[in-house]
Task: inverse folding
């Protein structure tokens, strides 16, 4: 379905084609037995325990500001192994390094550890966990349609105090260089997040639970948004369900990565524009 077709048939029919019809298909496609070393039930057990451990580590270690600052300092001092000037330069962007240490922690917990479980414990390929960009271009119109209302909401709420307090996540921009480095790192974090929730968690549960894996995935996905503005937290419930269904239907996380990065960058630049920061860079 193209974006033009979606606009022509109206929201009700578009919802049926994007959500209802795929939901009816995903059980048959995803309930195939796990081909690797574990049974479906064993895979579900390992998946849920891994997810719980990684989310706990994220909450109490990766999200700890003192840990982030310590990792950032270590990264800066590693630059001193090459030259004192490089170490001094990196310390000049210490706040950026703090944020990047958070991204590094997310990549470890959301991607590297689950990927090691997939390869070493399950004995499966990462492409089995929706990492392959199957028919990516063909599905882009669906994600463009989903982004449209979110983009409108971003423009509506960009001037609100809660939005301005939360975004952008990196608030110490010295110029376009460090801003763009941060936005690239921010995008990598959302790839890691999508693999964790819409790849590892969904596929790890799919053989045992079928489409109900989407509902299970949606709960922790909503919970990681606690502390964000209420509209964003509520929106994560809808986003978790929609992106989960589409990931299982297309057997790929890349559409979700695209829309998630687009939303994140849109919120950051909308906030920067409202605050006049872009004019000063």
Result:
């Amino acid at each position: 379905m193209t974006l033009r077709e979606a606009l022509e048939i109206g929201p009700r029919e578009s919802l049926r084609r994007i959500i209802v019809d795929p939901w009816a298909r995903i059980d048959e496609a995803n309930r195939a037995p796990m081909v690797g070393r574990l049974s479906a039930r064993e895979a579900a057990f390992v998946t849920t325990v891994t997810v719980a451990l990684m989310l706990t580590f994220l909450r109490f270690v990766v999200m700890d500001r003192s840990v982030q600052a310590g990792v950032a300092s270590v990264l800066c001092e590693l630059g001193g192994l090459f030259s004192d000037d490089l170490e001094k330069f990196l310390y000049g962007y210490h706040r950026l390094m703090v944020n990047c240490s958070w991204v590094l922690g997310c990549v470890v917990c959301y991607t590297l550890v689950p990927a090691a479980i997939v390869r070493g414990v399950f004995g499966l390929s990462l492409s089995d966990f929706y990492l392959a960009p199957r028919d990516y271009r063909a599905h882009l119109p669906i994600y463009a349609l989903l982004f449209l209302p979110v983009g409108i909401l971003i423009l509506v709420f960009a001037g609100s105090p809660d939005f301005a307090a939360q975004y952008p996540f990196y608030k110490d921009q010295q110029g376009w260089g460090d801003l763009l480095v941060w936005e690239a790192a921010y995008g990598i974090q959302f790839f890691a997040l999508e693999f964790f929730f819409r790849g590892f968690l969904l596929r790890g549960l799919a053989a045992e639970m079928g489409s109900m894996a989407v509902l299970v995935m949606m709960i922790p996905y909503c919970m990681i948004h606690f502390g964000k503005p209420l509209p964003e937290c509520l929106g994560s419930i809808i986003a978790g369900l929609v992106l989960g269904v589409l990931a299982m239907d297309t057997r790929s996380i890349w559409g979700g990565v695209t829309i998630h990065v687009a939303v994140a960058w849109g919120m950051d630049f909308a906030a920067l524009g409202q605050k006049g920061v872009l004019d000063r860079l």
The chain has a mean pLDDT of 88.
